[in-house]
Structures are given as C-alpha cells and as structure tokens.
C-alpha cells in the first residue's frame, strides 16, 4: 500500500507536467489536456467551483511553479470578456466576472444552469492559485506585471457590487454555496473568498507601494464584511448565516436538500486553501466540528479536497485514512480519479494533500 501511495503522489506531479507546462497554450481542465474531439465530458470546459483550483493545488508545493503559468495566462484572458459579464449581470462599470463554467472562447456567464452555474466568487477563489505563484517564488516583478492587475480589478469589482445588509455589514448577493443550499444575502463560501481577495490585494499593493487610496478602501471593506466566519449553536462553522444548529435554520428547517452527505465543503475554504480560519482558535475548533459532520464518502475529487482540509486541521491520521479510502472507491485501477468517466482533479488533490 505504501508503494501505491508514493506512486499516486508522484503520478499527480507527472500529470501536472504532462498537462500544464510553461509553453502550454492552456491550463489543465477537468480531464487534463483541453480538447474539442469526440464530445468530451462537460464540453472540455473549465469549472471554477473547486475543480480548476484543485488542479493547481500541488503545483507550487511540489516545486513545479513554472507549470502554473498557463493558468495565470488563462485567467488573465478572462478579464476582457469578464468585464461584459460584470456589466450585464451585476451592473458593474469596473472589474470583471466569471462563474463556475468558463471556456477559452471567453464564456464567462453563469453557464448551463443557474442553480449551480452562478458563482461570481469563482474568480476570487482561482486568484488564490495565481497569488500563490508570488508567495512561492517571491518574484515581485512578475507579481507587479501579471498578478496584481488581476487582483486589483477583481477587488474593484467587489467594491462595486457589495451591498449592506440590515446590520450595515457588506455582503455579496445573491450568494449560493456550490452546489447546494438557499440563495442568501452572503454566505460563508463567498464572504471568506472576498475576505481573502482583499487580504491578498492589500499585501500586493503595499509590497509594490502603489494605490494607497484603494488600499485604505479595501481594508475598510474587508473589516466591514459580514462574517466571514460565524459559529453556530452546534459549535460548527455556519455554512449559511441563517443556520443555527447543523444544517438547520431557527425553525428547524433543512437548509440543503443533500445536507451533510454533500460532496462540496465550500464553507471550509477559509481553512483551506485560505488562511482566515487559522487566525482564531475558536474558528479552527469549529471547522473540525463541521468536518466531522460532513460525510467522508464522496467522489474522488471530494475525497481529495477532504484530504487537504483534514491535513490543514493537523489531523494527519484522518487525512491518511481518506487516502486509503481513495484506493477503495475513489481511484480506478489505472490510478485515474473516479468521477465518471474521469476527472483529473482528484489526482491533484491527493498529491497536494500529501
């Protein structure tokens, strides 16, 4: 078994190199190399509600930073069409927007189905993958020329679209926790990602010594965000701010059809890949409660995300248990991630978790 674990870890590095090299025209997608032949699953598009992000989680930590350049180029290419989407869907005159589904042809609108396609926070999330290029390489010049302009434009987009709730706190609306739950005024998923966006763009601007007025505004908006983390009556991190006890509102109504059998753990993003939850021991403890009440049984990429999240909680034995579960039901005999017919992200998730 140990040999298989080592092989699967190295296989993730191999798949990164094979699907996203410095001279690649496009980043890796749901099946790896982008193609338009033989009716590929999901039309070979890019999904940014966990899948594309997970593809690049192991890139830097396994010393393959150059393999992230196609991703950074691709996200930069979404800015021009994304400005049209921001204008049409949000009435924003600044910034750019893209959602769960997007393509090399500039498709940045919510996609096939609004119920899972709506996710403006997909961009703040994928920008974490771009920002990490600077965090790992320390290349200030590259950050100035390529990463900061994207962060700045997206922060200005949220400056424009955030609204005040009844308590005067800033929220993004409508908010929807991929891929389930009610539409609400803000939720932990989106508020955590907006918090991280402001955190990273402020660090970038102050490192470069630019945009002092914007920095002051970003700090003020970040401080006035609703949440981002709230602890419920069960000691959990709330997934929705209307949640009281686990997965229920004050009237005892379920807030999600699939509840804690759901594969997505979108309210955990402030823990991993973000660095918000670690700032408060109470939030950190609540994150463990939430994870203990989310099923371990999931599709391959869902197990991959859980491996990383349990590892960030410092629960190495639990993370290792999930790696074992991968071999039982999340990986095919050829070591491909088992999300029918095949999704490469689960492979990358395992490698990142290790």
From the spread of the alpha carbons, the general shape counts as globular
Question: How widely separated are the two ends?
Answer: 15 Å
**Using DSSP, what is the number of strands?**
6
Percent of residues in helices comes to 40-55%
Low-confidence stretches: none
What portion of the residues fall into strands of 2 or more residues? under 5%
Gyration radius, in Å: 19 Å
Order of helices and strands: HEHHHHEHHHEEEEHHHHHH
Largest sheet, in brief, is: 2 strands, antiparallel
Helix count from the secondary structure assignment: 14
Overall mean pLDDT stands at 94
Helices and strands: which structural class?
A: mainly alpha
> How do the strands of the widest beta sheet line up side by side?
1-2
Model description:
- Helices cover 49% and strands 5% of the residues.
- The chain has 354 residues and is mainly α.
- The mean pLDDT is 94.
- The radius of gyration is 19 Å and the shape is globular.
Question: What's the helix and strand layout?
Answer:
Blueprint: H1 2-19, E1 46-47, H2 51-55, H3 57-61, H4 69-77, H5 79-90, E2 101-102, H6 114-117, H7 122-137, H8 140-161, E3 163-164, E4 170-171, E5 175-177, E6 180-184, H9 188-208, H10 212-223, H11 281-292, H12 300-312, H13 316-329, H14 345-353
Antiparallel strand pairs: 1-2, 3-4, 5-6
Key descriptive features of the protein:
single chain, 354 residues, mainly alpha, two-stranded antiparallel ribbon, 6 strands
